[in-house]
C-alpha cells in the first residue's frame, strides 16, 4: 500500500533531510552563475585573452568577480556597477585611487590612441548621449572587462559594434 508523502518524510531521520536539502542547495548554486559570453568562439577568445594577462593578480581578481551581478551604486559581491568595479580593480591591483563615478574617472586619464592601449588602461563609453556613462578595463587583443548592466562582470570584445559606436576615450590614469 502507498503511504502518503508526509508519512514517508516522518520515517526519514531529520539529519538525512537536512543533508539532502544542503546538497540540493549546493548543486543548484553551481548552475546559478551567469554565462558571460554566449558565442563559444567568443568565449574561447575571451579565455585566451585572460590566459595572456601579464599580471596574475589581475587574472585572479577578474575570475573572482566574474559573474557578479550589476547593481547601480553597488560596491561588493552582492552587486557592483561599472565604475565601482573599475575603482576596486585599480585600487587592489595597481594601488591607484579613482573617483567613484565613471564620468569623473574619465577626467583623470591620459588619453591614448586605441593601438597604444596596455593591460589595465581604462576605456570609457557613452551609451546615453554626450557624457561618459560606462567604464571598462583593457586586457589585451581587443578584450576588456567591465560590469555589464545585463550580464554582470564579464570579459567582452571591444570590436563589437555596440562598443565601437559608444567608445569615447581610453588610456592610463595620469601620474
Describe the structure.
The model is unreliable at 1-6 and 14-39 (pLDDT under 50). The chain is α+β, with helices and mostly antiparallel strands and 175 residues long. The N and C termini lie far apart (80 Å). The protein has helices at 5-11, 14-30, 40-51, 56-65, 82-94, 102-105, 161-166, and strands at 75-76, 79-80, 122-125, 134-140, 143-148, 152-157, 167-171. A five-stranded antiparallel sheet has the order 6-5-4-3-7. A two-stranded antiparallel sheet has the order 1-2. Helix content is 39%, strand content 18%. It folds into two domains: 1-32; 35-171, endopeptidase domain like (from Nostoc punctiforme) (endopeptidase fold (from Nostoc punctiforme), Alpha-Beta Complex), CATH 3.90.1720.10. It is globular, with a radius of gyration of 21 Å. It holds the Pfam family NLPC_P60. One of its GO terms (molecular function) is cysteine-type peptidase activity. Keywords: Hydrolase, Lipoprotein, Protease, Signal, Thiol protease. This is Lipoprotein Spr/probable lipoprotein NlpC.
Annotation keywords:
alpha+beta, 175 residues, endopeptidase fold (from Nostoc punctiforme), globular, 5-stranded antiparallel beta sheet
The amount of beta strand, in percent, is 15-25%
CATH H-level superfamily of the largest domain: endopeptidase domain like (from Nostoc punctiforme)
The gyration radius over C-alpha positions equals 21 Å
Low-confidence stretches: 1-6, 14-39
Number of helices: 7
Total beta strand runs: 7
Termini separation (Å)? 80 Å
- Structural class estimated from helices and strands: alpha+beta
Let me know the largest β-sheet: 5 strands, antiparallel
Q: Count the domains.
A: 2
Task: Give the overall shape, derived from the CA principal axes.
Answer: globular
Organism: Pedobacter nutrimenti
Family: Belongs to the peptidase C40 family.
Keywords: Hydrolase, Lipoprotein, Protease, Signal, Thiol protease
GO molecular function, one term: cysteine-type peptidase activity
